[in-house]
Structure formats: C-alpha cells, structure tokens
Amino acid sequence: MPLLDAQPLGAVPLAGGLVEFRVWAPRARSVAVELQRRELPLAEAGEGIFAGRLQAAPGDDYRFVLDGGAALADPFSRSQPEGLRGPSRVVDTGAFAWSDAGWQGVSLDELVLYELHVGAFTEEGTFDAAIPHLERLRALGITAIELMPVATFPGDRGWGYDGVYTFAPHRAYGGPEGLVRLVDAAHAAGLGVFLDVVYNHLGPGAEELAAFGPWFSDRHTTPWGPAPDFRQDPVREWVLQNAELWVRDFHVDGLRLDAVNRVADDAPRHVLAELADRVRAASPHALVVSETHEGDFTPLDRWGHDAEWENSFHHALHALLTGERDGYYAPYGTVGDLARAYEQPRARRVVAYGQNHDQIGNRALGDRLTPAQDRLALAALAFAPHVPLLFMGEEYRETRPFQFFTDHLDPAVAEATRLGRRDEFRRFRGFDGELPDPQDERTLSRSKLSHDPPDPEVARLLALRRALPPGLETEVDEAARRLTVRRGPHTLRLDFAALTAEVS
What we know:
By secondary structure, the chain is an alpha/beta fold. It has two domains: 4-95, Immunoglobulins (Immunoglobulin-like, Sandwich); 108-422 and 437-469, TIM Barrel (Alpha-Beta Barrel). It is 27% helix and 22% strand. It has helices at 118-121, 127-130, 134-140, 175-188, 207-210, 233-248, 271-282, 298-301, 312-322, 335-342, 357-361, 371-383, 411-426, 441-447, 456-467; strands at 10-13, 18-24, 31-35, 38-41, 43-46, 49-55, 61-66, 71-72, 88-89, 113-116, 144-147, 151-152, 165-169, 192-197, 216-221, 226-228, 254-257, 287-291, 307-309, 350-353, 387-391, 473-477, 482-487, 490-495, 500-503. The strands form six sheets. An eight-stranded parallel barrel has the order 10-11-14-17-18-19-20-21, surrounded by five helices. Strands 3, 4, 7, 8 and 9 form a five-stranded antiparallel sheet that branches. A four-stranded antiparallel sheet has the order 1-2-6-5, with no helix packed on it. β5 and β6 (49-55) form a beta hairpin. α9 (312-322) runs antiparallel to α10 (335-342) and α9 (312-322) runs antiparallel to α12. The longest helix has 16 residues, at 233-248. The protein is globular.
C-alpha cells in the first residue's frame, strides 16, 4: 500500500480546525464518520482506504459507519473514554505537554527493570497514583519501570493481554493524558519506561474490527484469540504504527513484545523485523525486547531486536528453590542447569528474573516465592550477567499474591475463562483447591501491593551488580545443592538446601 506508513490510520488533527480520518474497510461500499450528531461521508482513497478531512477538534467523539449500518469504534482509536463499547475520541498526541527535553533513554548495559501492573500497583490503580513511588524505585537502583499492557481491553480490570484498541491507553488507568504524566514524571526521576505490547492476538470484542475487513488469519491460530493476518498491509501497519506511536508520541523508552513466537508472518521480511527498523527511525534510543520460549533466539539473530525474555534462567532457579517439576519445570532441577544459564553466551541480551507476572499470576493461587526463596533469588539475579527484572513488591519481599483477574463484558467469555483456568490446573499434581474467580473484584483487591519499606539488602545487591566485571566462573556441587559464582573479586555462594545466599 503506497505511502501508508507516511499517512497514519485513525483520526489525526491538522491545522485550521480539521481532522483527517483514515480507515481501512475494503469490504464496504461506503464509509461515513458519525461526528457531532451527523454522518459525514469519507471518500475512497484506494486499496480499501476511506479518508477525508473534516471540521473537528481534539476531544470530539466519533465512530465509523459502514454501509449505513452500526456505528463502530475506530480500530486505530487513540482514546476510548467510555471503554470498549463506547465511541472513539480525537486526540492530538502532538500537543502533549512534556518536560523531558534532555532525556536520552536507558542503555541496555545499565538496564534494571521493575515490572508493574498499573491497576494493582496502588490502591487507586492509575497512572497518576504510581508517580509518587518513582523516586524510591530510582533510589533502589531501578533504571526503568516496565508497565504490563495498558491498551484498552474489556472492562476496567485485567492483565491487559486481551487488548482490542491497542492505540488507546486504558481509560480506567487515566487514558492517554495519564500515561503522558507518568512517563514525563518517570523521566524527571531518572527512570525509563518500557511498555508491554501484544501483537500476537486480539481479545474479546475484536469482532468489531473484523467488521471492517479481513483482520484475522485463516491459516494461523493462537491459544488466546484470533491471530492478525499480516498478509494485509493495513494489519501490518496496525503493528508498525502502534509501535511508532508509543516511542514517538508517548516518549516510551522501550517495548516488550509479548509471546513473539506466536506472531505468525509468512512474508519474506517478518513484521517484527520491520518493527525494529520503524521504532529506531521514530526514536533512536528506544529498545525492542521480545518474549519468546526457551532456546529461541530468533528475535536477536534474525529480527535485530535488542534483547529478549527467555525463561531458562528463571526455570532453572525456580526448580531449585521450590522443588517443583510440573509442566515446563520438568526438564530442570539440577544445580548444573542454573550454572549453564549463567554461562549463556547471549546473557547480556537476555532479561532474567526470579519472579514476573506470568510466573506468579499463572500459578493457581498467584502465590509468590517465600521471603527466604526471594532473598536467594535476588542474590542470584544480581550476580547474573543478564538484564535483571524485579516484579513489583520484590524490593520488600511482598507476600500478597498476584492473581489472575478479568472483567470480561461478555458473560460467555467470563465463564469460559473460569472453566479454562479450572481445566488447566487439574493437570497439576497435588492441586485440588478452589481457584480465585477471575471476575470477582476481590481477586484484584487481593493482588494490590502493601508497599512496605524496601529491604536495604536489595539496594546493596543492585549497587554491587553495577561494580561486577563482565566475566564469571561457576562451581557446581550437586550433592550439596550448592552453586558458587565468581565475578572478579566478588563471590556468590548459593545453598539451595539451606536456602541461603552469601556474598563476599
């Protein structure tokens, strides 16, 4: 599609009180914009695009009307002030107020990530409510926060991985303006901001997007929802323009791409390789980090991404800490497994963690490591050559769970989610308890942080990490379940039998 990357889809304010509306609707004979109680026609612009410049302003609500039928939200909407089923709103992203002109981002070498869920991080569950906590995170040694997905998803509460309007920051968190305030405040505090984005599927409610055209693949599937059809140029642009939006208009410092092994694209150049190019053109300092499965280094080796989430370090560490061998922990359990993870040749481009949203929240009860286990895990992480990530609350050994919560609008989807969770955990040996109901508001309430004072040991470990030289040696004692890691003059002794960590 010629020049499509130079002409953003959606609603873009122009000078002179005009807004350009552009929408891909190849199956429609006519498209109008429902705006200010009128339906204003758009003109065919070729390749299934309908476009027009209309008298409108930021703050105006609108919908698209295809062939005189139902009015639908914009697939490229920048704001959904009434949620998934409401109208879209015109947003002038170029008019956001910023005070971060001198900010240069965070390099991969200095990256220490802190993953948080906006809704569970504070009682208020908003972007603005997170701001007062930024200074203490920076003082701890964190260099960037990583937000779980904030694009508009069904209902008010959820993990965000079932997003539908991926350009529109979630209204319950504070919408686009709230996200801008958080990013600006983070930069003022010396923190970068990474954003978790989901391009492998869309969530419940995405059938409205399918009304516009062939959004979804008839050849590829995902376990979570319909897979986008990247044979369609505008669907590719949905990903590429979305990535550009976050790093250019919202000043985000990096993107964490969810489950890229499920992003199916048969084109000669994969859409996620194109994404890396477009992100760097839009913001040269921005980083692209992909989540994938163990042993898969396609994002680094073929797509030009900067780093990746890869679970080998976590799985080896968790199996030693807990003795668990169910599911994907089955191949792990020896001290040698963890030693090999330390020695991974690409470790400096791999994000490692003792806990994260998946590894806690996808457990039946959302239970975290115990404080003793977490203390050992953070010491192990500090000595690893990997990019370290802490999950919210680890800085003081949070004991509250992080559970799986949803707010699906469709009762059938809500019930299917409940049943799916029950079926999943029936396979786990020894689990026969009651699962938290994802739809119950109390499931989110139980997951909110207590915000106890940070453990000074965590800051000391992160400070030590900054002083460690690059090389390392490991010494394994399987019989005693001990691992020794040496980096220059510093030594870490991990004892998995006694659950102790000694640093010298």
